[in-house]
Amino acid sequence: MKKFLLIAALFASFVFGGEKMLVTGFSPLEVGETSTKLQNILNEKGLKIFGVFEHSKLAKEAGLQMSDTVVVAFGAPKAGTPLMQCEPSIALELPLKMVIYKNKDGKTVVAYDDIKNIAKRYDVNCDEVIAKLSAAQANFFKAITK
Questions:
Q1: Which residues of the chain have pLDDT under 50?
Q2: What is the helix, strand, coil percentage profile of the chain, to 5?
Q3: How buried is 31 (Cβ within 10 angstroms: 0-12 exposed, 13-18 middle, 19+ buried)?
Q4: What pLDDT sits at residue 19?
Q5: 46: Cβ–Cβ under 8 A, 6 or more apart, which residues?
């Protein structure tokens, strides 16, 4: 039984754990400033900001501590709807999100899950839509990690 569990664990780590899914970089700004910069860029591009989740602020309200952490959820129905028409279950992953947080070294980290990786997990075949969304994610990321 132990051999079976070991083999199963190795197989699972090979299948599910080998590829790093997040695109990660650093912002020269503080977490709040980076979040604001991203929101301004999204507004300028006419995208909808579905929510800004200040996890560290909410943790503090609950009497807990964590490093500054913000998630910005954003998108455009004209871009996301065709993807959901291809595969409705991908709606669980939309709108797109970026996380901005202060790491243990005091640096501001920006990370996101590329829609290409998400689409693979859902076996979505909408290549043109996925390519456009992925390019937009990369452009927003580059703009706030300069």
A1: 2-18
A2: 55, 25, 25
A3: buried
A4: 55
A5: 76
